[in-house]
Amino acid sequence: MARIKFLLAFFAMLICAGGVAGAYFFWKKFAQPELAVTRHISGASGSTFVRPDLGKRHFDDAVSLIREGELVSARDRLLYLMEYFPESGTFEEARRVVGELNMDLLVSRIPLPGKIEHTVKRGEALVTISNRNKTTIDYIMRANAKTSEFIFPDEVLTVYPLEFSVRISLGGGTLTVMDGEKLFKEYRVVDRNLPSDLRAPVSTTVSEKVAWDGNRPINFTDRNYMNCSKWLRTGRIGLFIRHADSGGGGFAESRPFGIMLEKADLEELFTILRVGSRVDLVK
């Protein structure tokens, strides 16, 4: 009987020793390395866990695609990043690059859904072509590297339907162009001067596109059109979109009403917005 008790005690000790050895193995193999990695990520204090930037990989992939000339794929990768990883440290830069890529793709010969090649027929003019294709004269001229209004029968022109909307954020200091529900490009508002009775929110449309050379209005057939001052009038009194260093443009006030952008940004906006494009002013 005593021998049996001794054997049972011996086996119990073996089991305990095996358990201790197993726990030690698990600690050395799995727990200790994981703890070391956690401490390394958390920093010296060990109090804050720093999450990895899951969006950075997509940003780096997009940069590689840009270098390879795959602009559409790069743009789509950045849009994916912005949708699913808004907390990424690369989000704001991705937003900026998306705008640059969208503009480059729009005015290039790179195929896009909706972009077509229009063959000029005898008797056609830029005005009729732009109206029929829901685009702008400025877009046709820029996308086809034209410096004058002259077109010729059988000439092939790139055209694209421009159906953008604009959201001006007073608090954010931004003017955002949207293509449906997707970001097209965002611009920085450098100054603003709005009537005291014009308060957000406001929904309106572009009512007129105006070009001035000195104190005289001109159109795209004028030789000075490419370098003139341009601005957009909306359906709300006092809500213009201008470039920041614009003068009176036919008006006597020293500081004209409007939302002011950099001149190059206003030129782009003038190119892609049509009369009737929606404009929303928000707080």
Quickly list its features.
L,D-transpeptidase catalytic domain-like, 10-stranded mixed beta sheet, 7 helices, 12 strands
Topology:
Blueprint: H1 2-42, H2 56-67, H3 71-84, H4 91-107, E1 116-119, H5 126-132, H6 137-143, E2 156-159, E3 165-169, E4 174-179, E5 182-188, E6 191-193, E7 202-213, E8 216-217, E9 229-234, E10 240-243, E11 258-261, H7 263-272, E12 278-282
Parallel strand pairs: 3-12, 10-11
Antiparallel strand pairs: 1-2, 3-4, 4-5, 6-11, 7-8, 7-9, 7-12, 9-10
Helix pairs in contact: 2-3, 3-4
Describe this structure in words.
The chain has 283 residues and is α+β, with helices and mostly antiparallel strands. It has three domains: 56-107, no CATH class; 116-159, Membrane-bound Lytic Murein Transglycosylase D, Chain A, CATH 3.10.350; 165-282, L,D-transpeptidase catalytic domain-like (Beta Barrel), CATH 2.40.440.10. It is 38% helix and 22% strand. The chain is built from seven helices and twelve strands. It has helices at residues 2-42, 56-67, 71-84, 91-107, 126-132, 137-143, 263-272; strands spanning 116-119, 156-159, 165-169, 174-179, 182-188, 191-193, 202-213, 216-217, 229-234, 240-243, 258-261, 278-282. The strands form two sheets. Strands 3, 4, 5, 6, 7, 8, 9, 10, 11 and 12 form a ten-stranded mixed β-sheet that branches. A hairpin with a 5-residue loop joins strand 9 and strand 10 (240-243). Helix 3 runs antiparallel to helix 4. The protein is globular. The chain starts with a helix and ends with a strand. The model is unreliable at 30-44 and 247-252 (pLDDT under 50).
